[in-house]
Fold this protein.
Amino acid sequence: MFDLTGKVALVTGARRGMGKSHALVLARQGAKVAVTDISQEECQLVVDEIKTAGGEAAAFKMDVSSKADVDAVFDAVIKQFGRLDILVNNAGIFAPKPALEITEEDWDKTININLKGEFLCAQRAAKEMAKNNWGRIINISSIASGQVGVGIEWGAHYTASKGGIIGMTETLAIELASLGINVNAIAPGAIDAPMLQSGAETEELKKYTERIPLKRIGKPEEVSAAVIFLASEEASYITGTTIYVDGGWLSQ
Ligand SMILES: NC(=O)c1ccc[n+]([C@@H]2O[C@H](COP(=O)([O-])OP(=O)(O)OC[C@H]3O[C@@H](n4cnc5c(N)ncnc54)[C@H](O)[C@@H]3O)[C@@H](O)[C@H]2O)c1
């Protein structure tokens, strides 16, 4: 089960953190992986790691908020690997600021990277996947996305973007179903990856840990496990849903 041999995957924001973990695990399951992020050099290091482990991958510099960049990189990936089967929309930023101080520029930057970026990549990916009548789009949201009672102080722009991702996922799932493309979201809780490390002080991390039933922060690989499942043939009857990988946070 969960064998991805012969599949081609593209991961955004894959130079470090959870995106890197997703790229490594997809490759371990047999997929050829396009490792994309804003730094070509750091993507190349991830590619080197995949190749050392016997996998196949290539590095691409891509800013997800630029349609020109997205189009050019998707073209290059398809030229190199011949097809695209799996997209992991992982790139994102969290630039904490009190709501009354968020500028129009701050707002646009977060929405452009976190929400517009996921849409641009999903749209472009779907056009390729439709050619084979098979595809998997996995959008990374967050438990801080609305409906489930988790706001983040100083994150009005961030939570708006992450909530938008869930709405977009549900709509794309409906529109792309007839093309053989399943679209789902993953909403991580507190995960030991750069965004959490930069956004929370040690004391805050301790507070999070206390309120999580599993009494610990999650590991990137624990989110990658959900990515692999949703990317696989075995997730054929799952579309339009959000999987919460949060150590039980939302059950409190
Ligand atoms: N760490 C957590 O606790 C947590 C919780 C919930 C959701 N998330 C989400 O998981 C994802 C990964 O987060 P992470 O914790 O690994 O942090 P991270 O900062 O390492 O990951 C984000 C990646 O996106 C890249 N990126 C930023 N702007 C970009 C752009 N314009 N174009 C392309 N790439 C860009 C960054 O370079 C980085 O590699 C993010 O979408 C984040 O919102 C993280």
